[in-house]
histidine kinase (Desulfosarcina widdelii), 256 residues
Amino acid sequence: YLCTVTAIRGKDRSLSGAILLLRDVTRLKEVERLKSEFVMAASHELRTPLTSLGMSVDLLLEHAVQGLAKKDIDLLQAAHEEVHRMKALVNDLLDLSRIEAGRIDLEFECVPVSILFDHAEAVFKNQTDMKEVSLTSELAGGMPMVRADANKITWVLSNLISNALRYVSKGGHIGLSAYRIGPHVHLSVQDDGPGIPPEYQSKIFQKFVQVKGQETGGTGLGLAICKEIVRAHGGAIWMESSAGQGSTFIFTLPVA
Ligand code: ADP
């Protein structure tokens, strides 16, 4: 049931009653589940033909280049990029629908945040060097371990860092930090890129939402997947940004 409570107040604002509304959302939940199952099955079926299509295009590009006119090579190159984009979209859709349908198996363990940060810094080293971006991390003293599936949380961190990397300018800065508040550790990824306009901020974690004019060829599903993974850990994710002032994405994980 979905429960809504509305307070009824008198003229002097004193509480005179309350309306309690209970909505049976069983059918709604079932429709949501069926939708996720359908998207999951469709994306799964699309993966195999897309993979062979991608391999054929790549083979053609590798072996037939000499005999082809420039415009034909350009066509093949465009096909290669589109297949690559579709594969990314299908994989993201599959991941998201699996999580939404409750088909995510989390392998919880006690993880030191420093390991998560060190791993992320190592993975992105080449890309940050190439763009001359500095990636630094800061851990508050006495940082406890978190209870998390290290692979899934690494995915979340990588997605946030790769977004930040796409938006910061050459020579920019990305900062990772972690600090404890009560029973949770807050992990944040901050960048000095263009930021996210206020009208997008409340919906940026929804599927397929991309800032108009700021798309960089992604699928628009990364943040939605991050949100579901963090939620499955019992945490929350949000962002803070003012246009032109960069963005900070923050998520929480339970202390181990
Ligand atoms: P994708 O990056 O594949 O488009 P995401 O769900 O990861 O999908 O991000 C959704 C949108 O949020 C992006 O298209 C972009 O407009 C905006 N966005 C995400 N991260 C940042 C960032 N660090 N700085 C500016 N805009 C961002």
In short: The first strand starts at residue 2 and ends at 9. Residues 26-63 form the longest helix (38 residues).
